Amino acid sequence: MHTLSFFLKLAHFSAAAILTTAALIAPHRAQAGAFNGLSSLNAALAGKGRTLVYCSEGAPAGFDVAQYASSTDYTASGGTIYNQLVQYERGTTKLGPALAKRWKISPDGRVYTFILRHGVKFHTTPWFTPSREFNAKDVVFTFRRMLDPDMPFRKAYPSEFPGAEFFGFDNIEKVEAVGPPHSYTVRFTLKSASEPFLGSFAVPAASIYSAEYAGQLLKADKVPEIKQKPIGTGPFIFEKYLKDATIHFKGSPDDWTPEDVQLSRLVFAITPYAELKTHPHLQVIGGENRNFALNLLAYNVKHPPLDNVDMRRALDMVIDKKATIDAVHFGHAQAGVAPLPPMQWSLGCRAMRGSNFSQWCEGSKARAFNALLEQAVRTLDIGQRTALYLKAQKIFKSEQPYTAIAYPINYYVLNKNVTGFKGYMFGATVFYGVGLKK
Q: What is the pTM of this model?
């Protein structure tokens, strides 16, 4: 379903305006409860500076973002608490520097070298005071934790990292600091060349953690606290989480991009989706905010009658995509015409483990399809790579393991006093650069 995200500048509203807005947010629950909840939150935030309240549709599973893969978890930590080595420029698919100020890719596409930014500080909280600034040691820790099950921190707190396979981190053969551990150069050597791999370093699952904080937790035998008491370098410092109710952050006074921290406080009010109606204080942003999402109908090719390719093709022909989009997305989606969203470069069987509902990664044609994708990833010439993707797409079309129904469009509903907001294509919401009119 398309995303509806709500921003409310509560600290500067009258009580009457709060009540009206609350009705829009939760029209199907007991109205008094909804009104009282937001009114109480407004009262608690009164006098606390430039505060933005974000109404989230769900609660995060935790704040150890590398463990999770939902947009709710990514919003609650990936773009608030943490930074990545590179980042997509807000509202675009263009990659730019973040914790890495520049990088170099070897001619064979196997070695990625990042020059890290100096002067980046980890958050200071009641549970952690950093003694040093961010450096290569933190990058090495972050990725070794995902890739090395024998690492002491990983053994003390066994975890699964869905992004490791999905974003290709399992293709990393070695990650190392160039020079001493506290240097500002880090090198990734891949098992096989991957031309589009740079984009993987921008996803929330690649958020950089503090090796020093991890060491403190390991020494104190409190490793699981990394999930409840996060430490990052991002624009907002985590303060507290009232389960299934609110998450409280404060703007980081030491952020390495101070112009991106325009809020004193950021509060998540966990609120279910609601039907939107016209309201004088709200504006809708959407229409071009597409992301990497795809709604599909998968056919289990291992069971009859769907093991018959003619049956799958017939179903693909008769599905009324427009009717489905109107019913499920209220008309706000782009009809699916290809096996992947327009902005996504490829998706092979290796990345689909655990969510391969069509069971189509076996058989000669499926293997040929996947081999073409793997070859394309290793091909540096864009013309040759495009030709390989077209061949793979023809195999997919002939086999029809699923029908692409729709590419959803993100919609955001903002208070008109909110400034600087831009959509984010991974389905999450980011708050750096977001402010309030004075």
A: 0.76
